[in-house]
User: Fold these one by one.
Assistant:
Number 1:
Amino acid sequence: MPRCPGNNTLIPLLRKLSESLGEQQAKNELRWLIEHTRKEIGDGINIQQHMTAQSTEHKGARLWREQAARLPDEIERDSERLSSVQHAWLRQAISDRTERHKPLQYIIGEQQFGKTNIIVRPPVLIPRWETEEWVLRLAELINSHTDNVRDTQQGLRAPRPLNILEACTGSGCVALGLGCELADNSAQILGVDISDDALQLAMDNLVYNQMLLSNHVHFRKVDLQQPVHTLPAQLRAGDGEPGGWDMIVSNPPYVTPSEYRDLDADVREWEDIRALVPLPPGTTDPRNVPSEDLDPSGMSFVVQLAKLAKELGLASKDRDEDASLRLDSLPRLVVEIGSAEQAQAACQAMHDHGLNSTEVWKDMAGTDRVVLGYFKQ
């Protein structure tokens, strides 16, 4: 494979990235792009086709983690190791990143999430580290509960798997992350979404990560903004989960309209607004929604999920459930939010709909990030 001529230095590309992103982020992103280029871009490949192709192997780097900045001579050594085709792909990628504001994950085509590698493509929401963090923590909580239940059930009939409903599944990262992290055959997980783009991507990710799954995961198209009383039959029909739902988890739309206007272009211009901002029911074209019809708190979808939890019987002592599961020690509703004010509102919505105990988890940055609602008997 022919290598780049010496004048094809990477320094101008780093400078271009730095002007757009800042020096530290530019050095990190250039590192990830170079690593991707070496692994995925072969000599003679159609560059434009590969810009939309998905990679075929798992990578260890997590794009959100800071890494030590490279020195100029290390960058130059990278340049010498790239072929002319690879260098051309890299130039195009950096052009997309700086001029079109295309997110890095869309350029690379994937994002690691726990044990999974999630294929990403616009306009479906890119998995974030904040979501990965709470999903892994939730899996630890559920696994600890499962271990305790199994210890007390020695010699008795094993408890049935937990039935987990994931609302607003998007790329499927949460459902698949739980499907990989939870103990073998301890859960059945259904991810639902209204977006055809999201459902197709979730199904692609199910196939892509199938060998990693230790629990059954599947996906369906469901509009959760329908009247709550019409949803239970639709959600249960054909799914075959005995005992009904045990838990709802979700990274729902919660960005406020004012926050959305201030988002960076690489989010606002590329990712589906429906995954970010709660829109009125029945919205087909977000551009036609008057600003006065938008929820200024960003919490309307979280309230809808609290209503759904109540309608599905997650906030009731009269549920027909396997008592050996001891569900009162597990959250019935888990939702991601973005601020202390939203955490308070989510807690109130859960209490209003029968979840009589709540808990708030902070993320690694110290922001209130997840609200968990319990039903304590």
Number 2:
Amino acid sequence: MMWSSFFFGLLIACTGNPASASCPLQMSPSRVVVRFGDSLSAKCTSLSNQTEGMGWESPYGGVDLTQNVTSLDFKIDSVPEWELGPMCYVNSRDGGQCTEVLPVTVYKMPDSVSLRQNSSTGKEGEQFAIQCDLVNVAPARNLSVLWHKGNKILNPETFNDSRPSPVSKSSVLTLTAHRDDDGAEIWCEAKLNLWPGEQGPTMMRSKSHRVTVLYPPTLTKPENETLEMTVGENITLNCNAKGNPPPSYRWEFPKFSKEFHNKEEVIEPILTRTFELPGVYTCTAYSDQGTVTKYFNISEAPRSRTTFGVMVGVGVAVGVLLLIAGVYFVTPNGTFSFNKGGYQPGTPSGPV
């Protein structure tokens, strides 16, 4: 690059015609992005009809002054440097000269992209950090690191580093542990922002890291419950809780207590059985992260109220039947007769 700059300054000093916006040159492509070690090619075309000759100045792949041409190719079989400044120049018949430098960016994808974390487990509410290491990537000024958490893309990080040769970089993601993130996968990606849209090489990503968040038990149905029991019928008590690690359960009944562990903990949070004793039944879900308690107030359904209601209903039905019988079958003198319609006052009801 220094050699090209020196030659460029020498041309200005000798000709007095530096490159400018009015320089009648056209580069194809207008800029080059090339991987280190790959081949490079470009074409310089003069738009002037007064062209006497053209040439390319470069420490690699330079082309001597060529007479009577209006376009000239530039080629390098294998790019050997991180900075290149190939310059096309055109000599005109009036003795003037026009020059233009071809912008070239030499890149290299990282040798590796990996995650590093001091601890694989964090408690809810605590902060933890994950580091993404990128080894030998260039140019750093065009590098960005994208963090992924599940289906979300977090804010990318860029680097203010003007060195064109490969460097190693690290990006640190700091998060506050939350139970919703337990089991989520986190990974990072390295991207070189050198091409529009989806052009260019595929981004490199690290292996994913699964987040483990420890948090205390939380009841899925947190409200305390009041229930009535009827003899012979089952009642369901739901004390299911979610936590990490999964909680164990302890039930306290009015006359005994029982603990459930290990394999039974998934089933025993929900009890369905006939409860014979009224009172307060207590369930405690616990782990080394904390405890939570739920109360079930079970009372006996008032059977006396039910029996009384049945008796009243039967009494009312009997009374209605008697009333109907009285209207149709009781005679005026107070006797009961199935032939009430044929009765005459003072008339014997049978032979004398």
